Amino acid sequence: MFRKDLVFLHPPSVYDFRKDTIMFGPISDVVPSSPTFEMYPVGITSIADTLEQSGYNVQIINLAYQMLRKPGYDVEKVIAGLNPRMFAIDLHWLPHAHGSVEIAKIIKKYHPDTPVVFGGLSASYYHEELAGFPWVDYVIRGDSTEEVVRQLIAAIRKRRPVDSIPNLTWKKSDGQIVVNPLTYVPDNMDYTAIPSYKYVVRSVFKYANLHNTIPYLEWLKYPVTALLASRGCTQNCSICGGSQAAYKKICNRDKPAFRSPKVLIEDILFLQKLGQAPIFILNDFRMAGPEFTEEFLSLLEKENIKNELVFELFFPAGDEFFGRLAEAVPRYSIEITLESHIERIRKFNGKLPVSNEKIEQTLESALKHKCRKIDIFFMTGIPKQSFEDAVSAADYCRHLLEMFPGETRLCFFIAPLAPFLDPGCLAFENPEKFGYKQFYRTLEEHRQGLRQPSWKYILSYETDSMTRDEIVEATYESALRLNKLKKEFGLIDEPLYADIEYRINMARDIIHEIDDILKLPESEQKEKMLQMRKKVETVNKATICGNDELKWPVSERFGNIFPLFKVLVGLFFKEWALLFHRIRLNLTDKDFRAIK
User: Fold this and answer.
1) pLDDT tens, residue by residue, 164-223
2) How many CB atoms within 10 Å of residue 407?
3) Do 385 and 269 share a structural domain?
4) How do residues 89-104 score in pLDDT, each as one tens digit?
């Protein structure tokens, strides 16, 4: 009854990052996590909550975060001390290709008879290759696997066959790989919280450990939260592994599945009780249509949400939308991934394939209707983009700042499409059409690529317009120009400008030093790289923008004491209720039925 049924282990990108000298560069500068990619996928909290509601004991351990937080954290000792019925490892984002498999090896070293299951978009894409590893027993495919995982645990606990479990790739006793049909694709997301913050808080009580479920290194200082509005997408951007085409190929999903406005509001209200930190609504909720949009905004307006809400825009908007948003939400910001200021590139790529005039009208309308911050993201390494196309993004940013004089709410970022092309996206599946030359195709090739000494060599591609060297140089040159522009227009201060310029130039030098080291005999390369370790660590985070540039205002980190205390007490008693539920289930043995 008290034994853990499932332990989720979130791996670092590269398992031995604490020993290896790898210059990851700016590949994670515009996301909350570090190059270790310690932020785990939100879906594993949903799986954990669903299983616990059904009477199972589930724990999440963020190994990547713990390894960053404590240099002496002994992963092998932690894993050896665990004894669940099954281990689960996420391989959602391909940068975890190395660490995830290495963690599976460690599990089998200490628990050779305990099943290991993988899941996530990348695991789904490479399910047969993954199942071929001796350290992997199962791969669960698709984007909505809560019920499938529950069925698998039930089968393992009761020693039942798994041949009828949907979405499952598994091995027979002779090693033959079996691929069950991918048929479990729910058409709405109201059956679970995505993510489940209630599970996260309860798990702190249950396992007496705060740090195991912390999402990323600086979260306690800046506890931003996120909610997923949908699984799947209506857009078909060529380089996105979450595009419509990719979801169809990987998850057998024809259209997005949405969480209803009512359920989204319930989640927002719960997060508001925990604190006043920003809440990021992932995916553009307007994809669900005008009726959904109006219902969601009407419910927001009734509740008078105090937290900053951050929304993604996948397509333009005007006065009608931003006017309603301003009425519904006292504090809001938006994010737009423009990728390129050049219309022909956006049209070819499928990302915001509209005129710059439409983009500028969207910005004008958002600013007019009290949007507090607009983050605009550009990329290097996208299809049909030349070196000059990339570095001239700063010129377009100047145009926008001159168009909206004195406006400091516009925030600009540029980052490389790195480290890999997403498996399943149109460009990955049709590289020649989109002008890509790929260096890695298989999971093992990506795993080995992550061990390369700098992000230039980790890049899985080059284009018909830019080599790897040119993509790296375009990234740094663009960042230098953008940094100078931000200082000129008062978006950043002089010390931050100087710090970023120093880091970019230092990173450029390190790239060239690593190139020179790789010309030496292999016997000398390792020692030379070790000598560079401290220099490399200084440019492995916040190279091309400041740490705080991506942050939204926070009025207070945690909630008022009485609402917060009420929530914590409620969750404490909920955990006791689940305990008694498990007692009844163990006595009656009625829970372990296979779902159809």
Assistant:
1) 999 999 999 999 999 999 999 999 999 999 999 999 988 988 888 989 999 998 888 888
2) 15
3) yes
4) 999 999 999 999 999 9
Q: According to the model, what pLDDT value does residue 218 have?
A: 87
Query: Residues 100, 101, 103, 107: what is their CA dihedral angle, to the nearest 10 degrees?
Result: 130
Query: Per the domain annotation, does 348 fall within a domain?
Result: yes
> Which residues neighbour 89 within 8 Å (Cβ) at sequence distance 6 or greater?
8, 9, 10, 11, 100, 103, 104, 116, 117, 118
Residues 529 and 414 in one domain: yes
Query: Quick one: 170 and 256 in the same domain?
Result: no
Cα 203 to chain centroid distance, Å, stands at 22
CA distances from 520 to 448, 498, 517 (A): 20, 34, 5
Place 591 in a pLDDT band, splitting at 50, 70 and 90.
Answer: very low
Q: Residues 237, 183: one domain?
A: no
Q: What CATH number is associated with residue 133?
A: 3.40.50.2300
Q: Which domain holds residue 504?
A: 232-538
Same domain, 314 and 182: no
Q: DSSP string covering 146-198, please?
A: HHHHHHHHHHHHTT---TT-TTEEEE-TTS-EEE-------SB-TTS-SS-HH
Across 140-147, average pLDDT: 97
Burial of 594: CB neighbours in 10 Å, binned 0-12, 13-18, 19+: middle
Helix, strand or coil, per DSSP, at residue 336? strand
Place of tokens 């190929």: 249
Q: Is residue 165 part of a domain?
A: yes
CA separation for the pair 376, 273 (Å, rounded): 30
Residue appearing with tokens 């001239």: 392
Report pLDDT for 595.
Answer: 38
Chain centre distance of CA 412: 20
> Could you give phi then psi for residue 143, rounded to 5 degrees?
-105, -5
Residues 155, 105 share a domain: yes
* Residues sharing a CB contact under 8 Å with residue 559, sequence separation 6 or more, in sequence order: 272, 273, 274, 275, 276, 567
Q: Is 257 helix (H, G, I), strand (E, B) or coil?
A: strand
385 belongs to a structural domain: yes
Do the beta carbons of residue 317 and residue 362 sit within 8 Å?
yes
Number of folded domains in the chain?
2
